Amino acid sequence: MMNKSLNIERLVFSISAIAIISLVGGCGFAKSSNSLGNVSVACSQQEDFCQTMTKAFEKETGIKTTYVRLGAGEVLARLKTSKGEFDVWAGGQAENHLLANDKGWVEKYVSKAAANLPKEYNDKSGIWSGFYTDSIAFCSNKKELKNRSVSAPTSWRDLLDPKLKGRVAMPHPATAGVGYMAMFTMSSINNGDFSKSIDFFKKLNPNIMQYSKSAATGTEQAGRGEVATSIALDSDCQKAISAGYSDLVITYPKEGTGYEVGAVSVLKGARNSDNAKKFMDWILSDKAQNKYFSIPSYAAPTNPESKVGKDVPKQDVVKKVEWNMRKAADNREKFVTAFENDVASADKAK
């Protein structure tokens, strides 16, 4: 009887021990999985770029990664009203990241990977680092141009041709960074004369079919033949050409054009600050930038160790205007307000 009782006690003890070990082991596993945490990205690039890069980061690090695709102007608006919504901002012109820092929305961080980049792709104080670059171009549909008896534009003035009335696309400066880049480019061409930039876009307005919220929209419209030409990024136009829009052609203005350094910044008030820094380290690496091939993206990588695809527009042959990022940041509000008051309000953007 005693032996039977002892056996029962041993059985109960063994079951209890197994249960405790399983519970501890289970808790340990859960803790290990959750300890990697999350990161939330405000992504100002094309949708497939955002999706591919965030998935790749999550796969390589185990950090749960989510993103919202927003234009640079939209990110600035969200940061104003929703602090802590995002941990890191990836994409959009570097001058917009300067603006975010001016408002106290950036946590300065000098990434260890930044040392591998040319100096023009880094803010030395740690506000931003660049992970791609491209330039403003004219993305035109050859058939539509022929129908209107005009050549592909090679000057900003060519866009004012009456034959192009209602057949030009442009992103709105209030919602898309490329729209503002075009404004600042025109000011730079005119030795910083703000009024001449506004006058140019007033004259261009009758030729605009639609102001878009996103820079890529005009490229798609040109590809479908809905417009004859669009003010666009050369990388977006090349992407459309490679996707099958064979009637498209890229040209650049002979006076010079603006360019962007697509930047990444860690955001102040981030709920996952350490993971935001890991994301920044990763996206500046050659390993990450080599993934541009698989998206595909036609923006040029900033890491000199990264591979550059044969169809990526060659940035070193493009005539560029003098581009002062600090001035571009400081003048954005004035330029955009004038554009909305004198040319077209943001609610017209679609």
From TrEMBL:
GO terms for biological process: polyamine transport; thiamine transport. Keywords: Signal. One of its GO terms (molecular function) is polyamine binding. The keyword Signal applies. CDD domains: PBP2_Fbp_like_1. Pfam families: SBP_bac_6. InterPro entries: Ferric-bd, Sperm_putr-bd. One of its GO terms (cellular component) is outer membrane-bounded periplasmic space. It comes from the Bacteria. This is ABC transporter, solute-binding protein. It comes from Gardnerella vaginalis JCP8108.
